[in-house]
Design brief:
The protein is mostly beta strands and 916 residues long. Helix content is 13%, strand content 41%. It starts with a strand and ends with a strand. Residues 1-55 have low confidence and may be disordered.
Length: 916
């Protein structure tokens, strides 16, 4: 007799598990349990078709659980996660089966979970676990937005291939996108997500996300009611992120973001507190939406209250610092207008981590656990008395210092830059300085450096600091080509800014090159049909590994052939070669402070001319040598992002000098033109001169014009004193070993004006002088002003100075023939407003507007610091780790270039690889 035992269906509500990757909640699922036991045989004690009550289950020994259905997971893994074990005693029906379903449901991987009885052997039971998996994501497409936005949305919502697709994923993705665009002012954003089964890949779906942003909702007006002491414009200005529509506003749009609006309401109240109105408050505010105009109207009603003044201010609890010292930091006197915002900043300025406030006074000297509060203790009429209550706490010391996230950079490169050392007294100043130093390395995203406080123990007086960093690409590739000088010019540059020289012979470290020790190696090749330049440089920031002494070295070689720009022919028998060697050391100082760096270098350049007569030099054959010593003192505390500094300054002064050969070589350079060997001699075949008399090889000659005819040589025989001076020979002697001194100064300031808006101000000055005035200032090492400031290749050691709005080198002095001769003195002033568009590690972009003025002069006598060429313009900079800095500037020159009679006008400049 067969007995059919039917177990009724039961709905099981699963808990809401949390996915550790994205913290999305998994929605409740309905799971059907169908357990059907089919027993074959006769049982005299049970009647046919007897129905067993659900609460009277029977106990069995679990013999086996078999997973059936099309699944991609390992069968044993699924059984393990269910919690059921072979040999376990279970009740059918009972809590063990229900619990197994709950555990599997918490995984968020399955759409249906069912248990069936396969067979029963005495007291052993064999179960089948039937599972239907949730579909996985094959691909996702977005409609209604720009392609450049798609990647960020996929990343933010973790819509990766093979991601489990469930209702929770769909809902959270939809809500995220709608909220994202609402924050940008698109309040009518609608998102529709549809999934269609993939016809090729089993149990996979293709997701289509349709986004309709609608029109951006803007604020038509912000009106204040009840304000008498402060005007509506003053209060609207206090609202930093909520602005009404204004055609002339560029940096802030009129979008409405609720979170920022609430913050701006607090700033409105703070604006009153700055003026003494302590009791000012907002009675009500309303935001109304006009659907037809798609605009918002904001109304804010104020209650201003009375104006107050500071009364007596007393310090309590301070034992480390005197009242007099704390009063100097507070900077508030009795009788001054009450300013609650100023009082808060003088106690603890949250907007500046390195501010000179009372909290930082304590925290910079070990008092991590200090707490300073200003408490109103008495109000009489319009005067408020305060107590500044100080809880100093014990001195804290750094305990464990660690760095995480440096996957490529070796630990010692970071640890040697840390200013927070184990066992040293806690200092917030050193913590902030460490963040700057890590950012200045250039190997990490400066916006992502995060010091986390661990194991803060007031009883032990210790704290652990864990610096979290994110590596970014530090190597750069320069690959460019262009047409100039009558031919194609190609450039290949490779810069490895985190190189490891010690691993050059370690095969395992090539990924693709040995990296991680903070050294810099740069290789640059540039060439065309008429010139080639090769350069190689290496620098080690910690020479010897124990002290911050930077060692640098470089070698370069250039070869240029005589190029006829008209016929585009190159004469390779006429060449000009330059060999340059340089070695330098730069040491970080401790006095006056450790932002100062003393740098020294020795350089040697060899100029070799072979029949190279171009007008660049007065001689076409010969050589010049430039042995120079450079010493510089600089101080840089700009930070924290080297690409986009927001504070600090960078000053430098340097002197480049050569040995004063004139003092000991015994040569009278002022008399060279009168000496026999520097007179002009005829070298051609015998012929009549301009006067009709014979002109023989070796005769001393002079140039003369007879009867208005053409100029030609006239022989003076052996009377060399009457002969013309051979200026090429004189200059070859003068410049055989270059003799000069060169002074330069540069000052660079960065000031945050408003929000992310930064002002950069810059001043530059350069002067090239001579020891011996009879020898004169060398035609090498001069300054060439104007244009983008980018030197393509330098033949004579010149320095190219940027002044946008004019053509390259166009503001450089010229000789009587109109040829540029370079300046011996220049000065330049610049002001630049910068605003970041994005500062992500993958690409940093900022816009700028500039005012510039500068000029250059042939001699010091001509110098007039107020006779300047002025310009203004706008630009854009893009920094990508792999390619360096790229940019474009549009400039307008307000003054004429040499040879022009009216304002020069507009110029477009392309910037590649220049300083930030």
């Amino acid at each position: 007799m067969r007995l059919l035992l039917v177990i009724k269906k039961e709905n099981v509500d699963l808990e809401k598990p949390v996915n550790k990757l994205n913290n999305f909640l998994v929605l409740q699922k309905r799971v059907q349990i169908v357990l059907t036991l089919l027993l074959l045989g006769s049982f005299s004690q049970i009647k046919a078709q007897e129905r067993v009550p659900f609460d009277q289950g029977k106990k069995y020994i679990l013999a086996k659980v078999s997973v059936v259905g099309k699944i991609s997971f390992n069968e044993q893994t699924v059984v393990t996660f269910s919690g059921l074990q072979k040999g376990q005693e279970i009740t059918v029906p009972g809590e063990e089966i229900s619990g197994a379903i709950k555990k599997l449901g918490k995984l968020g991987l399955f759409d249906e979970i069912s248990f069936y009885v396969n067979k029963i052997d005495n007291d052993s039971i064999y179960l089948d676990l039937n599972i239907v998996e949730l579909p996985k994501l094959n691909e996702v497409k977005f409609v209604g937005i720009k392609k450049s936005k798609v990647e960020a949305l996929i990343k933010d919502n973790n819509l990766t291939k093979n991601k489990i697709v469930n209702e929770n994923l769909i809902t959270t993705t939809k809500n995220y996108i709608e909220n994202k665009y609402k924050k940008e002012g698109f309040y009518n954003t609608k998102v529709t997500i549809t999934n269609t089964p993939d016809t090729i890949n089993g149990n996979q779906v293709n997701m289509l996300v349709r986004i309709d942003k609608g029109d951006k909702v803007k604020i038509s007006s912000i009106d204040f009611i009840g304000n008498k002491q402060l005007t509506g414009n003053q209060l609207r200005s206090a609202m930093k992120d909520t602005k009404q529509k204004n055609f002339f506003r560029v940096l802030k749009s009129s979008k409405f973001i609720p979170e920022k609006y609430k913050t701006d309401l607090e700033k409105v109240v703070a604006a009153y507190k700055e003026k003494g109105y302590r009791d000012a408050r907002i009675i009500y505010d309303s935001v109304s939406y006009n659907k037809q105009k798609n605009m918002l109207t904001i109304k804010i009603k104020m209650e201003e209250g009375n104006k107050y003044y500071f009364g007596n201010i007393k310090f309590l609890g301070n034992t480390v610092y005197s009242d007099q010292l704390l009063n100097r930091y507070l900077g508030i006197k009795k009788g001054e207008t009450y300013n609650g915002v100023l009082l808060e900043k003088r106690i603890a300025d949250k907007t500046k981590p390195d501010a000179e406030d009372i909290t930082n006074l304590y925290q910079n000297n070990g008092y991590l656990f200090s707490n300073i509060n200003a408490v109103e203790v008495k109000t009489v009429n319009d005067t408020i008395d305060f107590e500044i209550r100080v809880t100093e706490g014990p001195i804290a010391y750094f305990n464990k210092i660690s760095v995480v996230g440096n996957d490529k950079t070796n630990d010692h490169v970071i640890y040697r830059e840390l200013r927070t050392k184990p066992g040293e007294k806690y200092s917030k100043e050193q913590l902030v300085r460490t963040i700057r130093e890590i950012g200045q390395l250039g190997f990490f995203d400066p916006e992502a450096i995060d010091p986390k406080f661990k194991n803060v123990d007031a009883a032990a007086g210790t704290v652990d600091i864990e610096y979290h960093v994110v590596e970014k690409g530090s190597s750069q590739v320069e690959l460019q080509g262009g047409y100039g000088g009558g031919g194609f010019i190609g450039t290949l540059g490779l810069s490895f800014n985190n190189f490891s020289a010690k691993n050059l012979f370690n095969k395992e470290s090539y990924k693709p090159l040995p990296m991680g020790d903070g050294q810099k190696v740069a290789l640059r090749l540039q060439g065309s049909t008429y010139f080639q330049t090769y350069s190689l440089s290496f620098s080690e920031p910690w020479f010897g590994g124990k002290k911050p002494v930077q060692f640098s070295s470089s070698i370069s070689y250039s070869k240029q052939f005589l190029n006829n720009y008209a016929t585009r022919t190159v004469d390779k028998d006429k060449s000009f070669n330059i060999l340059t060697l340089q070695v330098g050391l730069a040491k970080r100082l401790t006095v006056p402070d450790d932002y100062f760096v003393l740098s020294q270098s020795v350089s040697y350049q060899h100029y070799d001319l072979n029949n190279y007569n171009t007008g660049l030099f007065t001689f076409g054959n010969g050589a010049s040598r430039n042995l120079a010593y450079t010493i510089g003192l600089s101080r840089s505390n700009k930070g924290v992002n080297p690409i986009f500094p927001t504070y600090g300054s960078d000053f430098s002064i340097s002197a480049k000098v050569t040995p004063p050969y004139s003092l000991f070589n015994g040569i009278n350079y002022g008399d060279l033109q009168n000496q026999k060997e520097y007179k002009t001699q005829y070298t051609g075949a015998a012929r009549p001169g301009a006067d009709g008399k014979p002109l023989n090889p070796g005769d001393y000659v002079k140039v003369q014009t007879i009867n208005g005819g053409a100029s030609d040589y006239v022989s003076v025989g052996s009377d060399y004193a009457s002969a013309d001076t051979d200026q090429g020979k004189v200059d070859q002697k003068k410049y055989n070993w270059l003799e000069y001194y060169k002074i330069k100064f540069k000052g660079d300031w960065y000031t945050k004006l408003y929000g992310k808006l930064v002002l950069r101000t810059l001043t530059e000055f350069g002067f090239l002088g001579a020891y011996d005035q009879s020898r004169g200032v060398v035609p090498f090492e001069r300054f060439y002003l104007g244009g983008d400031g980018m030197a393509n290749y330098s033949m004579d050691g010149r320095e190219t100075i940027q002044l946008r709005g004019y053509e390259n080198n166009s503001l450089t002095p010229v000789n009587a023939r109109g040829e540029q001769i370079g300046a011996t003195i220049y000065n330049k002033f610049s002001a630049e407003l910068r605003y970041p568009i994005t500062l992500k590690s993958s690409a940093s972009i900022y816009a700028l507007a500039f005012l510039e003025a500068g000029s250059s002069y042939p001699t010091f006598k001509d110098y007039n610091p107020f006779d300047l060429n002025r310009s203004a313009g706008v630009g854009l900079r893009v920094f990508m780790p792999a390619f360096g800095l790229l940019g474009i500037d549009w400039g307008y020159g307000f003054d004429p270039q040499p040879g022009e009679t009216k304002a020069h006008g507009k110029e477009i400049h392309f910037i590649i690889g220049q300083q930030f």
